[in-house]
Amino acid sequence: MDSVTLGQVDLQLLHALHLDGRAPFSRIAEVLGVSDRTAVRRFARLRDTGTARVTAVVDSRGLGHAEWLVRLRILPSGAAALARELARRPDTAWVTVLSSGTEIVFILRAPAGTAAPLAGLTRHPRILGVEAHRLLRHLMERRWFGRTSALTDEQVSALRPPPVGTAAPIALNDLDRRLLPALAADGRAAYPRLAGQVGWSESAVRRRLEELRRSGMVRFDVEVDPVVLGYPAQCLIWLTVVPSRLAATAGALAADSEAAFVGATTGPHNLLAIAVCRDEDALYTYLSDRIGSLDGVERVETAPITSYVKRVAPTGR
């Protein structure tokens, strides 16, 4: 990825796309007070340099899938290649390499009621050990503060799309199976281009995507490296919390500006958090003063994140 310096308009544009990944640039430009051409040019620069992209994310539970948090111990020399191999799998999300270079953590999706498909991993020559635990619930409603703090409340209100419906998830059809991979690759692809890719009419593609969004089956996310936003210190935090304090602890963490994700898991740790900080000193302070002051926390394990190879976030709700 080329080095890019983000200006205020860039930060506002990214915040706007977090609110609605397919909002017309004309609408975004009007709210930001810039020209349509400026909004288009700024996003093209972010996309073409690999700084950010918009991607479609399908609700795993709506598909009847469970999410597994998988932690691999690996030979140090194999981290990069293995992470890329995992990222190419359609059933993985959020593939990360930890700072030791001997661990990879990722999300694996499988049909609910079945075991995680780990057979191929346990036989891999570079993998020394595998742990897999169910990601039971996402406990953070908002998105990380660092990605969504550039707009005023009035601008957010003007750009926020209507809330998704609460009806039962709709069943995916043949069009969806062609459409969703195209949107995962480019969440802002124009309707004529999508129609050409999937072999359906533009009106059918437009109508179906609106249905998927209204049902909550599909949402749009912006993949952007926190380092570009000025937050290079990123850390996985596994916590063992007494059951009576689990909900309160998760709620407290989810309200922190440093928190990018909070979720409940099975296994020896029952809570996973991702902290994103300005630097190592800020991360130390967060771990010692904030995490250390939480009631009911019996054990904490931390692991700095070296890199993300796949950024699609967990999607269960």
Alpha-carbon distance between the termini? 31 Å
| CA gyration radius, whole angstroms | 20 Å
**Total count of strands:** 10
Largest sheet: 8 strands, antiparallel, barrel
- What is the CATH architecture descriptor of the domain at 225-305? 2-Layer Sandwich
Derived from helix and strand composition plus strand pairing, the structural class reads alpha+beta
Share of helical residues: 25-40%
The DSSP helix count reads: 11
Order of strands across the widest beta sheet?
2-4-3-10-7-9-8-5
Order of helices and strands: HHHEEHEEHEHHHHEEHEEHE
Describe the 3D structure.
The chain is of the alpha+beta class and 317 residues long. The protein has a domain at 225-305: Alpha-Beta Plaits (2-Layer Sandwich). 34% of the residues lie in helices and 28% in strands. It has 11 helices and 10 strands. It has helices at residues 8-19, 25-32, 36-48, 79-87, 119-122, 153-159, 174-185, 191-198, 202-215, 246-254, 280-290, and strands at 52-58, 65-74, 92-98, 103-111, 127-138, 218-224, 233-241, 259-265, 271-277, 297-310. It has an 8-stranded antiparallel barrel with strand order 2-4-3-10-7-9-8-5. Strands 1-6 form a two-stranded antiparallel sheet. Helix 1 (8-19) packs across helix 3 (36-48). The radius of gyration is 20 Å and the shape is globular. The model is unreliable at 313-317 (pLDDT under 50).
